[in-house]
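Troubleshooting log. The previous structure file for this entry was overwritten by mistake, so regenerating from the original sequence record. Sequence copied from the archived sheet and checked twice against the printout by T.R.
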Amino acid sequence: MFVTSVVLGFGGYSQMAAFVPDLNFTICKQFIATTGLGVGLIGASVVAAEFIGFPVPLMMQFGAIPTGIFAVLMLWLVTGSGVFASGSPTMVQMKRFRRYFLALITLTGFYPVFKVFYDIVPVAYRGGVILVLPIWRFAAKHFIVHATRDLEDIIPESVAFLVDFFSSLFVSVCMSSSGPFYLSFLFISTDLVQILLELRELGANANVLLQIIRQQPGGSTHQQSYTPETTKLLTTILEAIKKPSAFQARSLESVRLWACLPHSLTSKEAEQLINLEASGVYCLQNQSSNDRIKRTPLQTIHRDQKGFKQSASIVPTPNLEHETSPPDAQKKHSAHTNGSRLRAAKSNELVLQGLQLLFHCEYLELVEYVECIIPIVYVVYKSALEMLPNIVYYPGGAGNWGIAQAVNILVLAMLEVVSLVFLHHFLQCKFGFSAMHQLAFVLETHAYLVQVKLLIGILVLIPFELQHLGADFNARVSVVGQPKILFVAKPFESKTEVVSFFLST
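Regenerated output below.
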């Protein structure tokens, strides 16, 4: 348990360092804070086992309380009290991270409850629970989107690695348990229907975008952007963003240039973003709450390579259009103005629809990635656990895992692999970009955020039914040997063995 606590604590602190770049939370400080957090959590667990009994009921959920206390205490000791001052510049970023992390903890704690609810429902009525799962996913996705409302860049990976991760793990666990074949078929059918609905929505978005691209003016810039066979979506969008005047785009109020979390940029890339921001096409008011800074009309804000903000003067061009002209000239000018406005609106819609399609593709790719690897990880975990002696501490003990259960789950994983390959082929043929490359880009640039969520889910949720963690709800409360032993599955004979368990696991 100590090793698990250290790994999870380091993952949480690394996420904090990414969300709060002004905190100056170095690797060394993270390691010190993580070690103190692990020691404090082990001490609290031993005390709870002494007064409540071992195993402590719902110890993973109970551990969230001392974890929160010791995490804040160690952060205060390592970084100083200035971080928590009301006027601290990091407070806005800390509040944003706290809201995000609380959403993660909430969904992590909700998963065991849903699994217990599924177990207590009679087998004849479990099909209804499976049909409720999409409704739960819909509500959970809206909850995560609300919690990350000012973190647009990480909404796809947050939803995929929180909601869809838990859903995929729940389906894998339920399919591995002994039950009628029609339940496994219902799980696979429900997942297939959801995939088809997502692809249908993506196809509708793609058709709208293709229509907009082919309605663009016939200039050379636009003709080079696509061919009748394959539309180069990324090339077209990059041209429209880098050279808004070529596409007659005047105001992209919904497009934000700067990422909500800082990225490593070269001086050339930072200068290019500064020039785009200076063009006045992109709305400066659509930034996250931590970036909203009062500006004078001659100032704007930019970030250097490390994400720090600096000011640069920008002088707006005066608008000189009020001149007298004959009626015919006014009509021609009005028609020309209306045509320009129409082309500008089409160009704006092109960029917005293209970015929405890329956003949607990123989410679908992450969902398919999660739903591919989670069943495989679960099969490997259960197969290895079946050969270990501590299998007796899990519900059902040994002998409940075999080839049939593994095949059922692997069929589900293969279905997700096929859907990911189909998505890649669809985007490659329609728009000339690779879904695999986009997925790899997200996994690389958001490595800390993605892998930490994956690690938390694997270390916390997969083994949560271990009886020593107090999650065996079917076990009868009994008194054996020690008066404070609550469950009877081979209890420890001394306090020394209890402490050894906490330290070794």
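The chain is about 65% helix and 0% strand. Archived copy saved in two places this time.
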